[in-house]
Specification:
Strand content: 15-25%
Order of helices and strands: HHHHEHEHEEEEEEHE
Strand order of the largest sheet: 1-6-5-4-3-7
Length: 206
């Protein structure tokens, strides 16, 4: 039996995936040139990242991370209908930069550092910085692959994340191992869904 219809992605993504599996470069390029929901970004990575951040990191998102949680304490639990928490987490989960690899100029680490320095203009975590949890913490109910964002609260900076039917602000000092999450690996993103994805491929085969 051959299954031919996917309910997880549209036809153009399916055609692009098939071209990759077949190693058909001409077909791959033809699909991208058609435009629509799929398009090929400029070859200059810095320009592409700048355009991406201008579209995705809206001023209201950063303002909310900096101002809308100042009356909350670290370890506060927020209800599911908390408007600011809903908006910030929804914005974070709407788009993601994905990379097949972590190393090299086109890898997760370099892109995360580039965006953190050039867009948020900081070598440290600041309000608006997305984070990826890398180790399970049963005490905090956080698990490898969970994501959230740094927000400014009454006691300083905290990690805002969604936990089932509520939101929670956790002290950065208490977090298990974590890293920047402007970009993440394709592997880590498996099972996730985004409205917009920027896939950065390495310049050399690996």
């Amino acid at each position: 039996m051959l299954l031919t219809h996917s309910f997880r992605y549209n036809q153009s993504i399916g055609e692009l995936a098939q071209a990759v599996q077949e190693g058909n470069v001409d077909k791959f390029e033809d699909i991208l040139q058609k435009g629509g929901e799929l398009s090929q970004a400029p070859e200059d990575l810095a320009t592409t990242l700048q355009q991406w951040m201008e579209l995705r990191y809206k001023n209201e998102y950063l303002r909310s991370c900096q101002q809308d949680f100042e009356n909350h304490q670290l370890n506060d639990e927020l209800p599911q209908d908390h408007a600011a928490a809903q908006a910030v987490i929804a914005h974070l989960n709407r788009s993601r930069i994905l990379c097949p690899i972590k190393g090299s100029v086109q890898g997760v680490h370099a892109i995360n550092q580039h965006i953190q320095h050039s867009w948020l203009r900081s070598h440290e975590f600041v309000a608006g910085t997305p984070l990826l949890i890398q180790r399970n913490s049963y005490k905090l109910d956080l698990f490898n692959g969970d994501t959230g964002v740094v927000v400014k609260c009454a006691e300083g900076l905290g990690f805002l994340c969604e936990m089932g039917s509520k939101f929670r602000i956790i002290s950065l000092a208490n977090l298990p191992k974590h890293e920047l999450c402007h970009a993440m690996t394709v592997h880590k993103a498996q099972g996730s869904e985004y409205d917009n994805v920027l896939l950065v491929l390495p310049s050399q085969d690996s």
